[in-house]
Amino acid sequence: MAVTATAVLLLNACNGSGNPDVTTDVISAPTADTYTAEYRAADYSTSPDWYTRVSVAQENLLSGSGDWKIMAPACNPCTDNIAYNEADAKQLYAGVAVQGYASKTSVNPGEPITFFVSTGSPTGYTMSFFRIGWYAGAGARLVLGPVSLQGNPQPVPDPGQDGLIECHWPAAYTLTVPETWVSGVYLAKLETAAGQQSYIIFVVRDDSRPSAYLFISSVNTYQAYNEWGGSSLYTRFKSGPLKDQKTGYRVSFDRPYWRGEGSGDFLSYEINMLRWLEREGLDVTYVTDTDLDAHPGLLLKHKAILIVGHGEYWSWRMRANLERARDQGVSLGFFSGNSVYWQARYAADAEGEPERRLIAFKEDVARRDPYATGGDKSRRRYATGYWSDLENWKVHYTDLVNRPEEALIGAETERNGNCCTSQAKAIGDIAVTAPAGWPAWLSQSTGLYAGAVLPDILGYEVDAVHGHQPVNTVIVARSRFPKTLSESQQIWANATVYTAPSGAVVFAAGSIDWDLGLDDFGRSRGSVPGVQQLTRNFLDRALQTASPLPRSSVLPATVSAVASPVNGLVLDLGTARWVQQLHWRSKGTAALAALTNYAVEISTDGLLWQTIIVRHDARALTASHELLNEQARYVRLIAPQADASALTPADFSEFWAQGAPPPPSARLPALGGGPIAGGSFTGYVIDFGARQQITRIGWRAVSNNAQPLACTVQVSDNGNSWRTVLQVRTLVFGQQTLALSAQGRYLRIQIPPIPDTQFHDLWAEGSSVSAVLGAQASAKSEAAGYPAGNAVDGADKPWLANLAASPDNNNTWLQLDFGSRRQIDRLQWSGADGSPYNAESPSDYSIQVSDDALTWKTVLARSNTKPLINGDELLNTQGRYLRLVVSKVGDGSGWPLALFAIWAEGY
What we know:
The protein is mainly beta. 10% of the residues lie in helices and 37% in strands.
């Protein structure tokens, strides 16, 4: 039976005229007694506050209904990606039979929410409210309605500032959400008398209940892609003087969603995990992106926060609040890809309602965003570009790392991993790494093994590890990803997991389609047991009380104060270390009462300092943690004398750095550089600021040219005289890394000047030369003209064991003499792969140390199925002498052993 709501006269928000169609529901919603009776029939609590304890498992035992599904969409045609043309927009969006939007993205029980509706012509329609869940497979439960209403056409607004399209329709229906409604995603289904249907989506929170899991609905991304009215953050002009330019940089929640028949992206990216969570009977409540920004206190009431949908757009406060929760022991699950990709910010709508507009200038941030171009430096951190590029707007050097999403998630969006053509959106498989290397709790009961696949789960946008991940990140999957079906180059996608110092666990699926393996609804190709069990294992682990990590990840250091020429505190780590985070917490003393501006600097010698981070805060900070991802011996926090009196260790209750010995994949910090053009070559150059040992280079590049390109890699100490160290016959677009062994202050990659070829990123991996221990080399076996000293003199000449194909070559050693007893942290080498003289690299070997070259201690032994052409072993030992003892070369046939370079690091 339809419920007819009481009519109440309100003012038309558009023209001030009386509007008899506005209704406010004050009497029609079922009462608590009605709901209590229904739950009582299911043998649940009969106490007056039963609803405060109702769980998802209890809710899903109630009767469901399949009537929530739309059978006759009200939009015709329901076309996405419309290039903007004013006449087309007016006709297309105004002609929808019935459509609407809500006054809030989420609402707490007991609070009002208003709905705004337009019909293509004056007509009656009904509004029915469904809670989405499992409900024995029905997928939803009818909780209210149908409510009978009268509709009228409403205007499609003209674009405002930066393409903003914001409706000011009169209210059609206001509902005070009953206290009995269980937290969840709700769809208000609109249906005309002719049977045309659409949705209005909203979330019911439960701010008072500390559920185990908190589900974040990614409404920012819904809105960024929402083309209703003719403009989104992606739409471009169809014709005229602005043809192919973007229509806008601001979008409003005060308009219907065009996708998903009014449900935004919910049916594409979130419903599968929601159905699975509720089918499993897990204790979950729901919020949206705007709550993550506005209600940070909600996050600390839960064991884990689940970022489920296409969570691409994040405000500064959203991320800060999530990191604060993680650092207080709340686990995070990123069950998607392309998360935390763009920084966005909120603004109020025309009526002053907060967080109803979303602003993102994206690629045009440097020239259009007033927060990036204006003189107020305190606002620059909120500039709306890539999270990984925002440092451009704060510090004038070309290292583009500020707050890469990888430092939070464990992996970050592979920018060349976005397949954007319909032919390229084919789903692939996720290939897992060796579960034996995972945390034991993650691999439990999965039945997975190295190389096993999770079929049809690798989506069209993926994440990958780029070197900014937290210290103890474990790669769970490494999957080949074709950029498009017509291109041969490959991109690697990663799933990761790490444990934060607080003990919180952070899992990242690394694929936008992970949720499709949980449930077979919609565009899923079927549930995947391995996906379900990995997700279940994370959720189970999150329920355990978080135990802070051992302090081994806290780097030992001495703290001292410095007053001149700067005012601050210095951490001396004793030797160069990989510093990932700097933590500090003040005691709130007078010296720090007004610390609103500060910088973080690093140094290898305590004399020359490099500025990494500069902050201009609107308020005094008493605690912070900064992401660095740098190699240094010294780290210092400095504040202007005008902002704080002399800082002393006594002012701080915490001041420490987190990190590890430099890992094999550590990026070298770059002080300058950029694109190069002119003459017969184009390409990219980077300046490390000082001579460095370079062991690998990598790049991300794109090109619209089909012809293969060759490139040259060169190094220089002065930026004028260049030495070629690597020739690449075919440059791979997408991401590529290559091994080499060279030293220099500058590195450049050159390609012929072919149009439409662009490098997004170029980086080098290696070590500071100052950390390389000087040594003299000797060997058990040396071929004439190829002494052991060749491998340590940087002359790019090899050391060879004797040239005969003799088994003796598989029982030889190369020794380094450091001149005195040293701390040895690492041994690296660059070997041969069939050249010269069919020379090979070691496969089975041990590393030994000695103080007298007579008595040796084995500190590491390896047996590998393949030769290690580029060896890299982390050590923690001491001695004057070190030797690499080789017991097997290549396939063991006795070919000559050759190393082009070998060096040890330490102090």
